[in-house]
Design brief:
It is a single chain. The protein has about 300 residues and is an alpha+beta fold. About 35% of the residues lie in helices and about 15% in strands. Strands 3, 4, 5, 6, 8 and 9 form a 6-stranded mixed sheet that branches. Strands 1-2-7 form a 3-stranded antiparallel sheet. The protein starts with 12 loop residues before the first helix and ends with a helix.
Length: about 300
């Protein structure tokens, strides 16, 4: 399946109204359908997710974690579609948010979709500027906190969700391969509508500096350095746990999740080797640093899973 890279044709007034025309646009029931139709007409495979205004979560999970509006309602790696008729049928069954199956989308010369998810507005532009680069004006979807930027990347790179050397430097995530993103026309649990920044702007090819960063393994400083230089700790915890907790406590708003992820990876390694389990201390430190319990728990679980330890 190939996503079109030419300027969208046929995105008329009705379709634009369904997608939303700005941050003050009122939420209408047709918006999820309008977003899904726009996507399939431009080659982006879609599938339904839970909708925050549905009576109950329709995600496939056994129990909802409370993050309404983002849980896939189907097995998205195989149940996505580019068929307008199926889109109409799916979104007529009830409130559903549209989402894009990232790994099912291909572009020019077999390139694959890469979505850069900034957790705040301008986050990726800040990273580009720090690298002496300018972020390209590519397809962008505004989200509740920031934006999704759609790009094409060479299939041979086999990108996933890893940040590479952007870990700790970028306030956000990337989505590629077996992944998905909530799409234009979706409603966030906060009431914010996901909206296209420019209906006529297609995805561009990802800049070389970004691809280099994503495929390069990050080099972390030795753990002892962080523990010894920690300025604050959690009373009653062993020195190593105190150091990791202090590392999280010292986080700034833009890098709290990344620092927590790094600390949780180190804690998981220590636990695997018979050391003290730092999960409770990291959770406490993350919440004190400003993260919600849900965000912190998700990040810690992700780090433990990546390290091969059950959180």
């Amino acid at each position: 399946m190939s996503a079109k890279t030419n300027a969208p044709a046929g995105a008329g007034a009705n379709e634009r109204d369904q997608l939303g025309g700005g941050s003050t646009h009122s939420v209408a029931r047709t918006e999820p359908l309008g977003g899904a139709l726009w996507l399939v007409r431009h080659g982006f495979p879609v599938f339904p997710c839970d909708h925050p205004e549905a009576p109950r979560c329709v995600g496939l999970h056994k129990t909802c974690d409370g993050s309404r509006g983002k849980h896939p309602a189907v097995a998205f790696t195989r149940a996505w579609t580019l068929d307008e008729r199926k889109v109409h049928e799916t979104f007529a069954r009830g409130l559903r948010n549209p989402a894009v199956a990232v790994g099912a989308c291909s572009g020019p010369d077999g390139s694959r979709l890469l979505v850069v998810d900034s957790d705040r507005r301008g986050a990726i532009e800040d990273v580009a500027a720090a690298c002496g680069e300018t972020w390209p004006a590519t397809m962008r979807v505004w989200t509740a906190k920031g934006h999704h930027d759609y790009l094409w990347a060479p299939a041979a790179l086999r990108l996933g969700n890893g940040l590479g050397t952007l870990q700790g430097r970028f306030d956000g995530d990337v989505r590629a391969g077996n992944a998905y993103v909530i799409a234009p026309g979706a409603l966030h649990a906060t009431g914010v509508l996901y909206e296209l920044d420019d209906h006529e702007r297609p995805p561009l090819f990802a800049p070389a500096w970004l691809l280099d960063a994503l495929v390069t393994k990050p080099q972390y400083a030795p753990r002892r350095t962080h523990w010894q230089n920690a300025s604050r700790g959690v009373p009653g915890q062993p020195r190593g746990v105190r150091g990791l907790a202090a590392f999280v406590l010292d986080s700034r708003p833009g890098d709290r999740n990344n620092r927590l992820f790094w600390a949780a990876c180190r804690a998981a390694e220590d636990a695997r080797d018979g050391g003290e389990d730092a999960q409770d201390a990291l959770m406490d430190a993350a919440v004190r640093a400003g993260l919600s319990e849900q965000e912190a728990a998700t990040t810690i679980r992700s780090a433990y899973k990546r390290t091969g330890v059950t959180a």
